[in-house]
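Running log. JK asked me to keep both predictions on one page so they can be read side by side. First protein, sequence followed by its tokens:
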Amino acid sequence: MTQDYLAFFGLFAPRAAAIDVTIWHKHNPILPVRLTDGANLNPSGQIWRRLHLGEWEYKQDPETLDDYEARQF
């Protein structure tokens, strides 16, 4: 029971800095995002994001010819 009280008071302790997740993972944004290279968003390329130094970074895969042809049909 003492552990329950300690856990409760732990909620008010200072929090650690944001964890740096450097692994890119797929992301489907609802709103437009700013890409790290400053390029315009391509409507059919896959968007990837990662948490780097406390901020989200976004990049997009270029659309291949096969992707373009598959989108046409």
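And the second, directly underneath as requested:
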Amino acid sequence: MDALSRENLLCLMQDVEAEDPIDYADLPFDEQNLRELIVDSLLERELVFRAEEPDEAKRMLVYLAATARLTLENMVLHARLLRAGLEDG
């Protein structure tokens, strides 16, 4: 998959996390295993998506929309956690 190799994507994820670390707190998960699970899932979806939608521009729009939704969902979750912390304290 050209530049979308498993190793490349894992390295890019780690580079992004270095700038903006994820707080796993006391969750009982192995961080590297979680990264690998996510990368494997995304690459599998991309293989199917490429077969169904060969137009790269359309695929990019779908990825951007999905990223925007995940970012919004993350922001809302973060705000809820902050609010819950304020209400508890």
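Observation for JK regarding the second prediction: The mean pLDDT is 90.
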